[in-house]
Design a protein that fits this description.
The chain is an alpha+beta fold. It has 5 helices and 3 strands; from the N terminus they run ααβααββα. The protein has a domain of about 60 residues: Arc Repressor Mutant, subunit A. It has a 3-stranded antiparallel β-sheet with strand order 1-3-2. Strand 2 and strand 3 form a beta hairpin.
């Protein structure tokens, strides 16, 4: 089926900024600096809802990535979240133009 859709243009990568003050906004800014895990967010006092914030970023078009990594602290595998380079570049561009694409 992929061959049948190859004539369609690739959609432009154009994510929206999360609402100001939201967990998704904090998550985006944190992911611009480093990869994140739930224990990281807990240690920083940001709560138990990292996965929900990451999911919201996905809905807004940021395409967050996750891989499963062993967490010795919890004795099981957990998700480690990151952003692709194109997402980081888009965030820097949006921030430099004053957040014109803000989805408040």
């Amino acid at each position: 089926m992929r061959e049948q859709l190859s004539f369609l243009p690739t959609p432009e990568f154009s994510p929206l900024l999360p609402p100001h003050g939201s967990a998704a906004e904090q998550c985006l800014y944190d992911l611009l600096e480093r990869d994140l895990t739930q224990p990281d967010w807990l240690r920083e006092g940001k709560g138990w809802r990292l996965a929900a914030a990451v999911k919201e970023l996905g809905y807004l078009g940021w395409e967050p990535q996750s891989i499963r990594v062993m967490c010795n602290e919890w004795g099981r595998k957990i998700a480690r979240y990151s952003l692709l380079p194109k997402a980081k570049q888009a965030a820097y561009t949006l921030r430099n133009v004053g957040g014109a694409a803000n989805a408040s």
